[in-house]
Amino acid sequence: MSQLPIQPLSPLDGRYREAVAPLGEHLSEAGLNRARVRVEVEWLIFLTDHRMFGSTPLGNGQKEALRGIVSGFGEDDIRELAELEATTRHDVKAVEYFLRARLEALGIAGVSELVHFAATSEDINNLAYALTIDAAIGEVWLPKLRAVIGALRERARAHRADAMLAHTHGQPATPTTVGKEFAVFVRRLDRIAGQVEATEPLGKFSGATGTFAAHLAADPGQDWPALSRSFVESLGLVWNPLTTQIESHDWQAELYARVSHANRVLHNLCTDVWSYISMGYFTQIPQAGATGSSTMPHKVNPIRFENAEANLELSSAILDSLASTLVTSRLQRDLTDSSAQRNIGVGLGHSVLALDNILRGLGEIAVNLQRLAEDLEANWEVLGEAIQTVIRAEITAGRSTIADPYALLKELTRGKRVGREELAAFIQGLDVGAEAKTRLLALTPADYVGLASALVDHAD
C-alpha cells in the first residue's frame, strides 16, 4: 500500500473542518499560545504601570507595540514558538523567551526581568484558558445554540395551531400542537443558554502554590492579593483568591455540565424529530443532487439529525470526562489537567458540528398537515379522557349519578379503536347535563388541544 501524506486524525480537522473552524481561533494550540502571550504582555504592562521595582510606565506607543504582538499573532509567530518549545520542552517558557526577544527588538529590554515575574506557568495558563474558553463559548458555541433556538421558536409560532396526535409511552394520547412541542424545546434550551451565559470564568495569579510567597519575598510591602485581583479583573475574569498552584477548574466543570445538558436536550429534539419523520408527521424536503441511499433511489434519510445525535453523544462524553477530571488535582498540583484541557476544543467542536446539522435539518423538513389530520381522525378514543373528566365535574355539580366514570370510559376505549359515530352514541346515552353533552358532542380530536396554542407564547 502507498503511504498517505500526513492526514488529520480527527474528522473535526478533516471532513468537518469548515463547520468547526471558528473554534480553532480560540481553542487550538495557536489560540492558546496567543492568549498566553496576551497574559504575559498585560502582566508586564500592569507591573510597569504600577512602577514596580523602580520601573516606569511604558509609553503609549510601546504599549501599542506590545499589544500588537497579540493582535498580529500569525504563522511566523506560531512557527517560532514551536521551535522554542522544541528546545525548552516547556510551552510557557517558550512564550517567555518569545516575548523577551520582542522586547529586545522594541528597544525595551530594560524591563525584560518583569516578563513572567513571580508567575508560575499555571498563572499564565489558567488565565489563557479562561480567556479562550470564554471567547469560544461567547463567540461560537452560544451563537450557534441561539440560532437553533431561534429556528425552533419560528417553527413554534408558525405551527402553534396545527393539531397533532400526541404519543405517551408510544401510544396515542391527548392531542397537542406541533408548535407547542417545538416551544417545549425552546423553553428548555433557552433556560440552559442563560445558565451558560451566566458562567463566571475564574482566574488566579498567586504563584507556585497559591500563597504569593515569591511576590512577598520580592516586595513585602505590596498588597499582592489586591494587585492580583486587579490584574485578573482587568482581563475580564473573576478573581479566585484561594487556590493551589492551579485554579481549581470548578467553573469549567460547571460550564461543561451545562453544555452537556444542552447536548442532551438537543439529542432529545433529534430523536423526536426523527420519530416524527418516520411517522410521516414531518416530510423531508429533497435537496438538489443529494442521495439518500446507494441502492434505494426513493429514500430521503434524516441524516442531519442522525449526524447530530452521534456528535452530541461524543461531545457529552468528552465534556463529562473533562468535568470529572478537572475538579481533582493531587495535593497542590499534577499535570492531569494539562492533557485534559487540550481536548476542550474537541468536546465543544462535536457540539458545534451537531448544532450546525440541527440548524440545517430544521430547514429541510415540513409539517405534513394531511398526515396529522388522518392520524387524529383515526384515534377518536383519545377523547375518553375529556369525557370522563366532564362526567366527574357533572357528578360533583349534582347533574349526574354515574358511579365510576373512569371505569366506564376504560371499558369503552382501552386497547380499542373507537370511531366518531360510536363515541357520539355513547355521549348521547350519558347521564349528564344538556350543556355538557352538547359540548362533548362538538369535540373532535383536532379540537382537543387545550391551551396548546396559547402556551407557545411562553417560548418568547
Automatic annotation (TrEMBL):
Question: What protein is this chain from?
Answer: Adenylosuccinate lyase
Sorted alphabetically, the keyword list is:
Lyase, Purine biosynthesis
**Pathway involvement?**
Purine metabolism; AMP biosynthesis via de novo pathway; AMP from IMP: step 2/2; Purine metabolism; IMP biosynthesis via de novo pathway; 5-amino-1-(5-phospho-D-ribosyl)imidazole-4-carboxamide from 5-amino-1-(5-phospho-D-ribosyl)imidazole-4-carboxylate: step 2/2
Q: Where is the Adenylosuccinate lyase PurB C-terminal domain?
A: 329-449
Cross-referenced InterPro entries, in alphabetical order?
Fumarase/histidase_N, Fumarate_lyase_CS, Fumarate_lyase_fam, Fumarate_lyase_N, L-Aspartase-like, PurB_bact, PurB_C
Q: What does this protein do?
A: Catalyzes two reactions in de novo purine nucleotide biosynthesis. Catalyzes the breakdown of 5-aminoimidazole- (N-succinylocarboxamide) ribotide (SAICAR or 2-[5-amino-1-(5-phospho-beta-D-ribosyl)imidazole-4-carboxamido]succinate) to 5-aminoimidazole-4-carboxamide ribotide (AICAR or 5-amino-1-(5-phospho-beta-D-ribosyl)imidazole-4-carboxamide) and fumarate, and of adenylosuccinate (ADS or N(6)-(1,2-dicarboxyethyl)-AMP) to adenosine monophosphate (AMP) and fumarate.
Origin superkingdom = Bacteria
A single GO molecular-function term is: lyase activity
> Which Pfam families does the UniProt record give?
ASL_C (PF08328), Lyase_1 (PF00206)
Boundaries of every Fumarate lyase N-terminal domain copy = 15-308
